[in-house]
Amino acid sequence: MEPRRMKIKVCLVGEAAVGKTSLIRRFVLDDFDDKYIQTLGTKVSKKELTVPPADGNEPVKVDMTIWDIMGQKGFRELLKEAYFYGAKGVIAVADVTRKTTLDDLDDWIEGVYSVTGKIPIQFMANKWDLKDQAELGEEELVQATKAYDAAYFLTSAKSGEGVETAFQDLAERIARDKLAKKDAA
Ligand code: GDP
Ligand code: MG
Hints:
By secondary structure, the protein is an alpha/beta fold. The protein has helices at residues 20-29, 73-84, 100-103, 105-116, 138-146, 163-184, and strands at residues 4-13, 42-51, 60-69, 89-95, 121-126, 151-154. The two termini are 22 Å apart.
């Protein structure tokens, strides 16, 4: 039997320099670059994933389209509609060495929801390789994710820790939601 296929768009949000571009680079190319390449406008990357069967069905091939954005606040309103339109999931990225980047995610998520309605969110607490300098931990993350029914992952785009798992877990949640809705219809 042909595996089911599914296309899903996900967007990364978060303040400048939290590691959004680096997380995508790690996930898609399995690579890391120390240079800070400021993303201009948006960049779209693609990755194919397989979601294992949960309900006795065949596995699902997921074509994930991953949208990167620049972090400048002024552009948020301007690009919002185009950037978030059609997104099925959001990755909300904070830098563990800067607590304010976690607080700022509420605004970003409001912005997404105003375009997409409620969709699954994955929090990534990035730069976990710098955990000695961390300003936030489990307690803050539990607090921040509670309102959104979201999961969180401690990640490092530098070492790769947690990155693949976090993307994969989001793909699984989106795919299963979508299949459940289709089966119910
Ligand atoms: P963006 O503005 O959110 O896209 O952030 P970037 O991906 O451009 O990363 C900003 C800076 O943080 C760059 O210098 C990266 O090399 C660095 N960086 C990104 N992720 C990590 C990480 O997991 N650990 C460490 N130590 N540095 C990181
Ligand atoms: Mg970037």
